[in-house]
Task: structure prediction
Amino acid sequence: MDLTTAHDTNIFSYATDQARTIVYLHYVDLIICFGILFTVIGLVTYATIKFKARPGDAEPRQDEGNVKLEITWTVIPALILLFLGVLTAIVMNSVNPPVGKLQADVIVNAHQFWWEYRYPKTGVVTANELYLPEGVNTLLEIRSADVIHSFWVPDFGQKMDAVPGHPNHLFLKPFARGLFTGACSEFCGAAHSLMRIMVTVLSPQDFKAWTESQLKVPAAPTETEAVHGQELFMSKTCVQCHAIAGTDAKALVGPNLTHLADRKTLAAGMMANNVDNAAAWIVNPQKYKPGCHMPKMRISKEEAHDIAVYLEGLK
Ligand code: CUA
Result:
């Protein structure tokens, strides 16, 4: 799978306005903390050398406390902490302002072990690969369908927990285009580490084009294998969990497969998206993602191949 084009990420990298604010706060914290560290090391070193005991020295003067000094070294740290506390509160309020009655642009629904993305304003539904417009402040509502997960794309700043029954919100205003990667960051079961996130930031025009392409109903298959694959898909248990626009498959338990062929990866970043991998997954999903809700079904390799050909034609 080609994720090599993804932006490199480190603790100082950022790609949204919100993450930039957090990284700047981080810089201020670091400068103050290093300032304190070097001041303390300097004073201790100076005192150690200057006041080193020498042979024949008398017992040093015994000091039973100095009120002025004690007040000074209580007040200065208190002021530093107050400054950092106020600064942190300002940053928190700017990064997570009150949501009020604002409608979310994307509803992120975490599942064991994949991500559903719904765009309620346009009707797009997709999985694992999120698309966002550059320069637009997008409101995400983070939900969970089962246990606690956490939505985390390092370049976008904070993590946001996906808590069942308690939607959380996250504003993201990306200023750079391209592919960003992330992962679930709350232990959520056996395949917690296999729950990757890919976010593609597009120009607003490209995002509009992407939205329109996602809303298109894919053409019905015409090739023999794909037609057979569709028959199998509709007659086996697949339809009890998955939806494909323009067909009778309308279930919402598993990922929506309407535009599966447009995705870069399968199984939330676990394998490249192609017919062979899709067929291998269909034969035995538990082999690739232990504990996932898709059971091993009685489907032969040949049948899985035809289903995969059908699914990989959905654009
Ligand atoms: Cu989902 Cu960890």
Notes: Helices lie at 17-50, 67-95, 204-215, 224-235, 275-283, 285-288, 301-311. The first helix runs from residue 17 to 50. Residues 110, 113, 149, 184, 186-188, 192, 195 surround dinuclear copper ion (CB under 6 Å).
